[in-house]
Design a protein that fits this description.
The protein has about 230 residues and is mainly beta. The protein has strands spanning about 5, 30-35, 35-40, 45-55, 60-70, 75-85, 90-105, 110-120, 130-140, 145-155, 160-170, 175-180, 185-190, 190-200, 200-205, 210-215, 215-220. The radius of gyration is 20 Å and the shape is elongated.
Length: about 230
């Protein structure tokens, strides 16, 4: 028999994609189901083990284990993390990793170990944005998202970037690529393709623009059809 518990609305903030939800509020009470439930020291720690599912529309998170520490309100998830968020307009975000943590003060979510994010703009999007990094950190109140360690962002076949670090500011919809290593960017369209390196790079999502600074070097290959 699977254990099931309900939590107040704020508990859903543990979900590793909530920072990407553009401030959307959850629509229902959060519930957690698991194969096993263990409560230690009168609720000082609560363990959910085996096929853990945290659900609160429009969020869904799967994990092997989840632990909540009452004194700190920190929630830690571990093992095959698989999170999904779908907006009313059809935007979909998937998050994967092996370890995750949510803290309430400040409101920060971390995802690491084989971590990656995939974002589809809508149900008909056939070229999602895919981000891989060693560690993701989301600051909920500031609505800022950081990726650290061998960050690779792709939107095949149009865009590819490699950087040591990246920051996405949701308020101004701008991605900043930076770090101790040179930033690499590959772009491709009907007119051709280009490879560029620089000390830093920026890309805005609305309107879609891009620029690089710091000893920029590039190589452009025109399309044979142009």
């Amino acid at each position: 028999m699977r254990a099931k518990c309900s939590f107040p609305t704020g508990m859903i903030l543990v979900f590793l994609l909530s920072v990407c939800a553009r401030g959307a509020a959850p629509k229902s009470e959060a519930t957690i189901t698991s194969d096993e439930l263990e409560i230690m020291d009168n609720g000082a720690k609560t363990f959910f083990r085996g096929h853990v599912i945290l659900k609160q529309d429009p969020y869904l998170l799967h994990a092997d284990q989840m632990v909540r520490t009452k004194a700190t309100s920190i929630v830690e998830a571990e093992g095959n993390l698989d999170g999904t968020w779908i907006s009313e307009k059809g935007e979909k975000i998937k998050a994967y990793g092996q370890k995750g943590r949510y803290t309430t003060t400040p409101q920060v979510t971390d995802l690491w170990e084989k971590a990656q994010l995939i974002r589809w703009e809508n149900v008909s999007d056939t070229a999602p944005v895919h981000i891989v990094a060693e560690h993701f950190t989301a600051h909920h109140v500031e609505r800022e998202f950081y990726a650290e360690g061998h960050v690779v962002i792709t939107q095949a076949p149009k865009f590819l970037s490699r950087s040591a670090e990246a920051n996405y500011d949701q308020k101004i919809q701008t991605i900043h690529l930076y770090g101790p290593d040179r930033v690499f960017v590959h772009v491709e369209d009907v007119k051709g393709s280009g490879d560029f390196t620089g000390d830093e790079g920026w890309a805005t999502l609305a309107p879609k623009t891009a620029r690089m600074t710091g000893h920029v070097q590039g190589h452009i290959i025109p399309s044979s059809a142009s």
